[in-house]
Amino acid sequence: MRTVAVLGAGIAGLLAARVLAEHADEVVIVERDELAPADGTESPRRGVPQGAQMHALLEAGRRGIERWLPGFTDEIVAAGAVRANTGTDVYGYLDGRRKVLVGDLPMVSATRPFLEAHIRRRVLAYPGVRVLTANVRGLSFRGERVDGVRLAVGGSDVPDTLPTDLVVDATGRGTRIAAWLAEGGWPEPPLERITVDLGYATAIFRGSGAGSGPGTGSGSGTGPGSESGSDPSAVTDGATLAQSLSTRPDGRVRVATLGRIEGDRWIALTAGYADDKPTRTAEDFLTRCREDPAEPFGKLAANARLEGEVAVYRHPDNRRRDFHRLTRFPAGLVSVGDAVASFNPVYGQGMSSAAAHASCLADALESGRLPGEPAAHYFSAVRRVTDDAWQTSVLNDLRLPHVTAKRPPGFALATRLGDLVHRAAVTDPVVGLRFLHVLHMIAPPRTLMTPSTLLRAIRAPRN
Q1: Burial track 62-91 (b if 16+ CB lie within 10 A, e otherwise)
Q2: Is residue 293 within 8 Å of residue 244, measured between CB atoms?
Q3: What pTM value is reported for the model?
Q4: CA-CA distance, 368 to 364, in Å (whole number)?
Q5: Strand 90-94 vs strand 241-247: parallel, antiparallel, or unpaired?
Q6: Of 284, 382, 402, 459, which is the most buried if we count CB atoms within 10 A?
Q7: Axis crossing angle, helix 350-366 with helix 59-68, rounded to the nearest 10
Q8: How far apart are CA 268 and CA 276, in angstroms?
Q9: Which of 438, 374, 368, 399 has the alpha carbon at shortest distance from 105?
Q10: Sequence-distant (≥ 6) Cβ neighbours of residue 295 within 8 angstroms
Q11: In this structure, how many other beta carbons lie within 10 angstroms of the beta carbon of residue 367?
């Protein structure tokens, strides 16, 4: 291919661009935001409204990034990200009970802007890959294919139309691809939405100096080994990363996560649904941490000080676009990342799905089907990724009493068996490891429903 366009410079778009660098003379990443370098001053940008929130890089995502950017994990750890291990310092809690530590999966903890900036720096180092700052107005069509991207002219270097051999839509959950296709006389992809009414809040902490009050300390604590966030045993009861899922006495479900990040700091998130969504006040955030039954969150509120403001985000619904169901689709066009499916973010599946989509794109390109044919083969592969992530996310969301979406056949039985396995993952190391592999998207959800797993779950100790 001569020129390909990737619409959006988020993680899904960047990984797609990395794949395309091996198949095209020129890869143009069209992004409306001005992009900052990876120099330690990264901050959330307008085009990523959830960028200030805590993000989880699951093992499937880490492996996927390593495939296309070898040495990435070591690189970002050297730059300040924090490496944890599921067998030693990644704590999971169910209603305050700590799960048995299992496995040896490495987990990297860092802010979203930090991760994105380092991926972008590596991708832009490939020959022929560049960023064009512009707004997308739509697609141009010729016959049965997309042959370009229509741009809003904002400067002398921005053409009215960018001719392309392939367009990758990586514009996120708010993509306008349905409208773009309709403008060209093509059918819109079926869209499924499940309202979950989730709200979550994220705050940054730094370890408090001696004598500071709970949650409001004044110590700087920036050096390694100092009385600061660099010592998990002093701040979070030994956890470098922690996640808590709990059901309150009134039936409300809450999720909380925390992790040590670059800059000798800590990041924490608390989430709730419907009328239990967190607010942007520090008082509410700290109260939720203290009320969480998992000990590290109360420890964080007591032993560290909150820095800056609390950032809130609302996730109204999960959505997926089933491109594989279309009988007509133009050649020269694919979608990746949240433009395909956007899941409940508390499960951390977004970046790992983006990495999987990049691999699906690579397979389709290497097969010779793209860009000359409609991307049916690609979207069939993406469907398998979406189905597994959707099952993990949506089947859990359908348990929430305020979610009104139709329950699938067998839902009640699946829920009871899921509860059985989840409780067993607290105490049984074999079940716990299988649960962890599903959580990290390196094993499909069906592995938790095998006879051997269910038998161990039945026999697992309950204390």
Answers
A1: bbbbebbbeebbeebbeebbbbbebeebbb
A2: yes
A3: 0.92
A4: 7
A5: parallel
A6: 382
A7: 40
A8: 18
A9: 438
A10: 96, 237
A11: 11
Mean pLDDT, rounded, for 290-294 = 96
Q: What is the DSSP string of 280-334?
A: S-HHHHHHHHHH-SSHHHHHHHHHEEEEEEEEEEEEEEEEEE-GGG-S---BSEE
Query: How crowded is the C-beta side of 241, counted as CA atoms within 13 Å?
Result: 22
Mean pLDDT in residue range 8-30: 97
pLDDT tens digits along 55-106: 889 999 999 999 999 999 999 999 999 999 999 999 999 999 999 999 999 9
**Weakest mean pLDDT among 16-25, 48-57, 270-279, 433-442:** 48-57
Query: Taking a C-beta distance cutoff of 8 angstroms, is the pair 167, 374 a contact?
Result: no
CA distance 59 to 441: 7
The owner of tokens 């990040």 is 261
Rounded distance between C-alpha atoms, residue 109 and residue 204, angstroms: 13
- Strand locations in 103-249 (E): 106-109, 129-133, 135-142, 145-152, 161-163, 166-169, 191-207, 241-247
Rounded to the nearest 10 degrees, what angle do helices 350-366 and 376-397 cross at? 160
Would you state the pLDDT for residue 355?
A: 97
Looking at the predicted structure, is the pLDDT value of residue 219 above 60? no
CA distance 36 to 43: 8
Contact 132, 30 (CB under 8 A): yes
pLDDT, tens digit, 9 for 90 and up, residues 123-160 = 999 999 999 999 999 999 999 999 999 998 766 667 89
Q: How confident is the model at residue 210 (pLDDT cuts 50, 70, 90)?
A: very low
Neighbour order of strands in the sheet with 333-335: 129-133, 26-31, 3-7, 166-169, 333-335
Q: Are 191 and 318 a contacting pair, CB within 8 Å?
A: no
